[in-house]
């Protein structure tokens, strides 16, 4: 009993040295890491530290997890729209560098305030670095792609994310795949992809205008983002969302700085990063690659507060309670948000203003795609309800309350 009581104490030193039979509430994460429920940096860990002897908060209800994921991708959809204004006439890599340079230290302060881990264990450093690399590459590809294409195309390309994530998660044994889950993913992803295909057919020259570079970048972003979701699940289960967010934004800051310097050293790369229909704007951007114009300030503020401090933290928190495929399927909310914002902008500002920023009018293909997306989400939610009644394929891995030994 003495050993059990000692081992149930949350300690950065012994949390992963405790045998499963001596640690109540332990769980195995895909055979990669054994993670105690009291994740370092999590809200639950901070609660116990600040209030010794208090009972642990209950695991979140499925509805709360779904609400958090919806909020995440609504904010991301808004970011796709707003960032288009911030990177016009400016380097998208510089935009992302400033965002990550501001957010990283803020997450470090939050980690310290919540009694989280500022430095991971030595054995986890390679995986943490891999997670940060996937995050940085996905962000770089997205903002570069946004420079070449309109925000609706950028958002709808996220439809590839559920497919990539499910395939990767299943291949590494993180989760099982059911027929209903596959059906929901196909419906939702097909709806979002139909939006993109319909937009290309409507404009006819959209692909030619960018030479396919924007679409290739968005595809690369989806692959990197899928790898981030799968790779980060064991890390966030061990350390919590705040610590992981701090590490990936700090690493992303370094990678973005190196990327900006490399692009600045090559005129060809500078012109590619500063793609714009107006050659004068493109040349001005390439010549002042590291400058921060006034037009970048408000989009940066939105990205820092909504997309980074709120959405990315909610995303990492959701990874503690939901399977990777369930997290990724909510990316289809992103194009719906972007389409709604595009319609609002067109009504308020007019077509000429929208054309200047590369914002297209959503058409019938957007409506049909939205209906398919809704059907896919309904199927996925039905899968969650079935799993709660005791079926084998569990969609939400919500942990049971931790019971301490006597």
TrEMBL record:
TM segment ranges: 63-87, 93-113, 125-145, 157-173, 185-207, 213-230, 242-263, 296-315, 327-346, 366-384
Primary location recorded for the protein, binned into one broad class: membrane
Keywords: Membrane, Transmembrane, Transmembrane helix
Protein name: EamA domain-containing protein
Membrane topology reported for the UniProt record: Multi-pass membrane protein
Domain EamA as annotated: residue spans: 71-196
GO CC terms, sorted: membrane
One Pfam family this sequence matches: EamA
Subcellular location per the Swiss-Prot or TrEMBL entry: Membrane
Species of origin: Alexandrium monilatum
Keyword Transmembrane: yes
InterPro entries associated with the record: AA-Vitamin_Transporters, EamA_dom, EmrE-like
């Amino acid at each position: 009993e003495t050993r059990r009581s000692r081992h149930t104490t949350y300690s950065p030193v012994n949390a992963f040295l405790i045998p499963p039979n001596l640690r109540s509430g332990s769980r195995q994460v895909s055979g990669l890491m054994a993670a105690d429920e009291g994740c370092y940096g999590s809200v639950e860990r901070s609660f116990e530290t600040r209030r010794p002897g208090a009972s642990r908060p209950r695991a979140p209800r499925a509805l709360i997890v779904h609400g958090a994921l919806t909020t995440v991708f609504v904010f991301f959809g808004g970011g796709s729209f707003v960032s288009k204004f911030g990177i016009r006439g400016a380097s998208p890599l510089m935009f992302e560098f400033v965002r990550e340079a501001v957010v990283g230290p803020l997450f470090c302060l939050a980690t310290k305030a919540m009694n989280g881990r500022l430095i991971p264990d030595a054995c986890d450093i390679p995986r943490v670095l891999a997670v940060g690399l996937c995050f940085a590459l996905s962000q770089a590809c997205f903002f570069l792609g946004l420079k070449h294409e309109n925000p609706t195309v950028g958002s709808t390309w996220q439809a590839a994310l559920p497919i990539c994530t499910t395939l990767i998660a299943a291949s590494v044994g993180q989760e099982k795949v059911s027929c209903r889950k596959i059906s929901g993913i196909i419906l939702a992803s097909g709806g979002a992809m139909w939006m993109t295909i319909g937009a290309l057919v409507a404009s006819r020259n959209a692909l030619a205008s960018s030479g396919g570079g924007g679409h290739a970048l968005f595809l690369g972003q989806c692959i990197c983002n899928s790898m981030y979701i799968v790779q980060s699940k064991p890390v966030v289960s061990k350390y919590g969302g705040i610590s992981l967010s701090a590490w990936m934004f700090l690493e992303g800051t370094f990678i973005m700085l190196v990327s900006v310097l490399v692009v600045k050293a090559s005129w060809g790369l500078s012109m590619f990063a500063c793609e714009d229909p107006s050659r004068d704007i493109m040349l001005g951007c390439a010549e002042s690659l590291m400058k921060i114009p006034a037009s970048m300030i408000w989009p940066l503020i939105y990205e820092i507060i909504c997309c980074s401090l709120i959405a990315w933290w909610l995303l990492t928190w959701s990874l503690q309670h939901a399977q990777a495929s369930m997290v990724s399927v909510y990316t289809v909310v992103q194009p719906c948000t972007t389409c709604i914002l595009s319609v609002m902008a067109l009504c308020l500002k007019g077509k000429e203003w929208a054309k200047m920023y590369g914002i297209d009018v959503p058409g019938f293909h957007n409506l049909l795609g939205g209906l398919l997306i809704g059907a896919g989400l309904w199927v996925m939610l039905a899968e969650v309800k079935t799993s709660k009644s005791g079926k084998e394929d569990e969609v939400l891995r919500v942990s049971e309350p931790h019971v301490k030994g006597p």
